[in-house]
Amino acid sequence: MLYYNQCYHGTTQDSKDLIIKEKKFTYKERKNHWLGYGAYFFLEDKDKAIWFINVNTNPEVLNKPKCIITAKIQIEDKKILNLDTEAGRKNLSDFVKSLEKENLNIPNVKNDEKHCLIINLYVEYFKMQAVKYTFHDNKIAYDDLNVCNADYSEISNNNIQLNVIDQKIIDFDNLVVENLKRGRLS
Predict the structure, then answer these.
(1) What pLDDT does 108 receive?
(2) φ and ψ at residue 36, rounded to 5 degrees
């Protein structure tokens, strides 16, 4: 069993009220969700959730009071597609090869759309409850920390994300909400 106790989700205060009332995170199915359809959380990094909700340009979010929800998530080891592990990446790669072997070709679309489609198919086929991956972003350079140019030793701007598909794994009875004022925790 895997336990994630620091799962952070940025949202509006209106949406937070609905989440608590209905015990459900709602989301729009976009064809470019990088880890498939589901409710996304930043693991162990509340600041990333704050940053994400603050830069969100969705008209439904802009100029509305925002908050961060902290959730605890418990999941069986075999019910998570962990793309941070060799096994997880190999399983997903083998799945794609099996689709191709059956002549079920993946459309020639942009990478993010392809990832979303493949992960959605994998999750549905294997009844996964969540998908986890660490994204790397080199838009922020830590020149004071990185003294050589070797990529393998670089400290970079990462974020670990957990996409929860089966929301039964979320402990809705113990959500913690922190309101933001002027983009910061109040």
Answers:
(1) 81
(2) 90, 180
